[in-house]
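in:
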């Protein structure tokens, strides 16, 4: 995943569905799913068994489609997805893709990239107008809004269609398909990538070297404070940390499960984030950091694309990272203004599922079979996957080694968003990534710790109205509190009262009911 990922509306994520990987993408941005520390009770707990990246033995990296029948009328597909940098050479890549796929599936695709900050509104407007289109990127964080779109009937169930695309069905393990299910039905095609989440800090290496920072001494979130102070006191032009909006992360660093209950609690009692005593302590610390000048002054109002631009200047020393994926330091080097970064992990990897990045078919699609054939290719055909991800060889990138490329930063197609399009494990490695990066990714997915309630997903339909109300309240209060921009002694009580009026107690009760039913059905309670 990638920036991803967080779209950083805490209780929106909480009530609609959690993030995990962002970032799972290349880092905690975009792709990792983000949250702003709202109700842990709202987290949907999208977890799946720990072999989700282990492909079926029948899977293949060879192109999956036979040449299309020539007597079929060519279909023109439309594909909407998020970007963080609008590609200047989009048309050339689209033309090359269509020249490649038309003989295979007798279809072409119109690529419709949308800047992440406006993606949710764009898609919702199209859906409200019943506009016809075919494929859309979706997720359990930010503008992806997966559960909500399913609840509104915006996505097409794929179970029957998958029988017509056996190569796609086989290329993605059953456990991953199962993780996408809502009320027993599949609505999303997982983009296979890192599915195990660890948390920690990405720190610019130049500051580690300059100030002899002992990264081995950083074992928790609070251990980063001396580093931030050192940067603040000695580097007046550097921002110690850009944002802390997603650092509480439903209390995962404070002994809570993603679903909101205290780990080890035999009753699995869900506690809303704002009622956790640890949350008040966290807010007091963030307030101290903010008033000390450690946190970026505009963190409370900063959008995802603005965060990307800020990081690209190289003037941010530290970032909270919610993925810590193998080889991710190379992605983050580009994000940090081409400065080397070091990952400092403060938690063990935990399997978090595949919902952070998927593609779905719109209910308004006129060509759902062809749309799924296209997604079959992005999951099984390395040529197409590399083309849509990296562009045209020798124009947008150069091959520099065995399955390894160097992206041309001035070529007009440098987005590098394979986590949006399909199966990154069949794609190129980037210069600097170890040859075994994909093997290590698969191994991490298979061996990461499984959550206590692995396989459980909340159904948000019974509290969808409350989710909307809670999201609005969270937008009003959550990020400002989590970034230390306001005094928690004054604002937290207002936040708590507003959440009660928005229906958080009803939401929490419904989530507890669903969790209890699942626990009993699975012999855990």
């Amino acid at each position: 995943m990638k920036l991803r990922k967080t779209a950083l509306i805490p209780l929106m994520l909480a009530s609609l569905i959690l993030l995990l990987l962002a970032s799972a993408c290349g880092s905690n941005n975009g792709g990792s799913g983000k949250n702003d520390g709202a109700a842990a009770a709202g987290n949907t707990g999208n977890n799946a068994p720990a072999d989700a990246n282990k492909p079926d033995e029948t899977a293949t990296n060879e192109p999956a489609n036979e040449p299309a029948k020539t007597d079929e009328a060519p279909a023109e597909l439309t594909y909407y997805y998020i970007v963080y940098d609008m590609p200047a050479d989009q048309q050339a890549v689209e033309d090359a893709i269509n020249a490649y796929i038309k003989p295979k599936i007798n279809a072409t695709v119109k690529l419709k990239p949308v800047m992440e900050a406006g993606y949710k509104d764009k898609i919702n407007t199209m859906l409200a107008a019943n506009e016809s289109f075919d494929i859309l990127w979706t997720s359990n964080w930010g503008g992806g809004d997966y559960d909500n779109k399913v609840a509104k009937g915006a996505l097409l169930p794929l179970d029957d269609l998958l029988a017509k695309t056996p190569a796609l069905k086989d290329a993605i393990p059953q456990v991953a398909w199962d993780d996408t299910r809502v009320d027993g039905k599949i609505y999303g095609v997982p983009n296979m990538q890192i599915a195990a989440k660890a948390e920690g800090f990405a720190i610019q290496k130049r500051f580690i070297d300059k100030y002899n920072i002992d990264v081995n001494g950083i074992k928790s979130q609070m251990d980063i404070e001396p580093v931030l102070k050192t940067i603040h006191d000695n580097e007046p032009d550097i921002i110690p940390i850009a944002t802390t909006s997603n650092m509480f992360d439903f209390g995962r660093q404070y002994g809570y499960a993603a679903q909101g209950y205290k780990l080890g609690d035999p009753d699995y009692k869900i506690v809303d984030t704002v009622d956790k005593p640890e949350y008040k302590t966290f807010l007091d610390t963030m307030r101290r950091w903010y008033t000390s000048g450690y946190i970026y002054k505009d963190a409370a109002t900063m959008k995802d694309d603005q965060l990307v631009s800020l990081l690209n200047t190289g003037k941010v020393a530290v970032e909270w990272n919610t993925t810590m994926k193998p080889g991710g330091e190379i992605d983050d080097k580009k994000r940090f203004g081409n400065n080397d970064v070091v990952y400092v992990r403060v938690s063990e990897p935990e399997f978090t599922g595949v919902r952070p990045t998927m593609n779905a078919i719109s209910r308004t699609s006129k060509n759902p079979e062809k749309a799924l054939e296209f997604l079959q290719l992005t999951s099984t055909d390395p040529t197409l996957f590399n083309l849509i991800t990296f562009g045209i060889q020798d124009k947008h990138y150069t091959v520099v080694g065995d399955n390894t490329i160097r992206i041309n930063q001035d070529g007009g197609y440098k987005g590098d968003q394979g986590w949006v399009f399909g199966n990154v494990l069949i794609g190129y490695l980037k210069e600097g990534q170890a040859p075994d990066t994909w093997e290590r990714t698969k191994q991490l997915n298979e061996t990461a710790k499984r959550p206590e309630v692995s396989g459980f997903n909340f159904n948000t339909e019974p509290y969808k109205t409350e989710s909307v109300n809670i999201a609005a309240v969270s937008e009003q209060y959550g990020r400002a509190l989590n970034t230390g921009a306001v005094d928690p002694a004054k604002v937290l009580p207002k936040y708590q009262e507003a959440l009660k009026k928005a229906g958080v107690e009803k939401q929490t009760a419904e989530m507890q009911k669903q969790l209890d039913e699942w626990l009993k059905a699975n012999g855990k309670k």
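note: Residues 75-194+355-443 form a domain with the D-Maltodextrin-Binding Protein; domain 2 fold (CATH 3.40.190.10).
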